[in-house]
Amino acid sequence: MTNKQKVSYAPSIRRLPSYLNIIRHAQSNGDQFISGTVIANELNLEPIQVRKDLAITGIIGKPKKGYPVNDLVLAIERYLGWNVEHKAVVVGAGNLGSALSGYQEFKNHGLNIIAAFDTDPSKVGSTVHGVPIYPLEKLEEIIPELQAEIAILTVPSPFASSTCDSIVKAGIKSIWNFTNIKLKVPANIIVWREDLSSGYAMLAVMMKIALKNETAEL
Amino acid sequence: MTNKQKVSYAPSIRRLPSYLNIIRHAQSNGDQFISGTVIANELNLEPIQVRKDLAITGIIGKPKKGYPVNDLVLAIERYLGWNVEHKAVVVGAGNLGSALSGYQEFKNHGLNIIAAFDTDPSKVGSTVHGVPIYPLEKLEEIIPELQAEIAILTVPSPFASSTCDSIVKAGIKSIWNFTNIKLKVPANIIVWREDLSSGYAMLAVMMKIALKNETAEL
DNA sequence: TAGATTGTTAATCGATTAACAATC
DNA sequence: TAGATTGTTAATCGATTAACAATC
Question: Which nucleotide has its C1' atom closest to residue B37's CA?
């Protein structure tokens, strides 16, 4: 009934991709080991936090040397489920949807975008970044054929709820929601909402505080 | 020296934009009051959390009725600094940069994107969603002329550091960083990093857990 | 060896949730 | 009035940070 999927270690999980970036860098440098201290410095974090976060992946470090780079990359990818490929579709091939279709980074994370859907007849039949665009009305027909597991929802917010219902009917198990609408879905459907506005809220508040401090100094 | 701008109530701040959406909806419905309970139900949150969050804006509710809608909208906007307009530029008019340039939602938040910069000569001189594109090399010259305060950084990550340096030289005070690079900036520069990968990390982990529970039921 | 770095256990900090009197 | 909803104060929960022995 409740679809509050509380995930343990959520803050740690959200930091792991940043660690992975740095560790992959070290890997391409040919480094065998990388220490938590080095990762922490790179990201302005505390070394103890990095060690605690890495501990959840099950990897064991060597005192004095750090963590074995190759093992660490694999352990993080395994922990994040990024070693498994997931087929995804973009629903709403507007500005944001098109951008995400072409986001190369996702390929490294096992996220494979294989189709997009849009209502615009002039887009249907063409491709964005190599991804074919299908008519939105045929979504419930095509998604099962493609065996897509993930829907990336980037329709304008007035259409979010109804489109979401179609997606669920089509058998999608997991929705990455870029609209500012809270979706109502059955309990077994996974939803992660990406909220760009909340990022701007943080930025704007920090600017307000900075301005206050500035004028206070006069 | 340290640019760890710790903001109090960060989790509350990040939830406020969602509340604002719902409250504006109520406002356009002509509602005079909205209760924390209603907001909470809409977002699958606890009413006490909504009340606590709204308390930081300084607004006072009426027992039995809830919060006055018009006052609440203004109070949240004021608290978030969204009542102040900020001029912004997009640096890197690729897929994501173009998408953000056309993101209408931002206008409602006082974020006014007035220019974009790119290295691609075929883009320079044209516009994206009405936003003029300038050559990236002229960034340090043009930004001061435009009196932009915010840079939205959407260049490919190999160029993030050097571009960031130019941005800082140009006098930008605040950077919304969409690259996966941790930027090195002077202490007085505000940075908020938006990390799309961390969202996918959460989604992928939730999918892994769901799969585990499923197979456990057999 | 000496010392940087680890993993573990405990302490602190902050955020969420609970309890409840006040009130329109 | 009765009861839904508020704001406040306290309790709980979870995340971060500190301390430190173990070790390569």
Answer: D5
